[in-house]
Amino acid sequence: MSKEIGCYSLIQYCPDISAAEVANIGILLFVPKSGFVDVRVTSTNQRVAQVFGGGIHKYDLLQRYKEGLADWIKAESRKFESMEAAKGFLAAYINLIAFTPIRSIVCPEGGQKMLESLFQKFFPDDAMPEVSPRTVKIGH
Predict the structure, then answer these.
(1) CA 136 to CA 140: how far, in whole Å?
(2) How far apart are CA 43 and CA 37, in angstroms?
(3) Rounded Cα–Cα distance for residues 138 and 140 (Å)
(4) What is the tens place of the pLDDT at every residue in 81-101?
């Protein structure tokens, strides 16, 4: 398999944009050449509760919002046809959920393996399923 260049962005919870305080809650990875787009979010809101206070049940609505995020990315996946297109799309998204600037990464074993690796790097205490039913292919 040839090495492909992927692009990733951390997904962040940002309840007050003016304060710019965030808690990482997931990761988005896309590989334009192969058309791979997928997102993983944390299974709990423990980190959010640590950063912003309150019990994790205070963030039940956020959990439902995170679960819908993958569906939203899937519906909008055609906008991830290039790095520039994705940058514009993510930069325009302003809400309680924010995206870090896109970073490039070499994906020697493909998008799925790289997503697993990145998720484990940034969220080592969170379990991740082996296969995502929400992985989408764009342009194919």
Answers:
(1) 10
(2) 19
(3) 6
(4) 778 888 887 877 767 888 999
pLDDT tens string 1-39 = 567 899 999 999 988 777 888 999 999 999 988 889 999
Q: What is the pLDDT of residues 39-70, one digit of tens each?
A: 999 988 888 988 888 876 678 888 888 888 87
Task: Give, as one character, the DSSP assignment of residue 31.
Answer: E
Q: What is the pTM of this model?
A: 0.82
- Check: CB of residue 37 under 8 Å from CB of residue 133: no
SS3 content of the chain, % helix, strand, coil (to 5): 40, 25, 35
Q: Which two tokens stand for residue 106?
A: 């070499």
Q: What is the DSSP string of 40-72?
A: EE-SS-HHHHHHH-S-GGGGHHHHHHHHHHHHH
Residues 6 or more apart whose Cβ sits within 8 Å of residue 8? 27, 28, 29, 30, 102, 103, 105, 114, 118
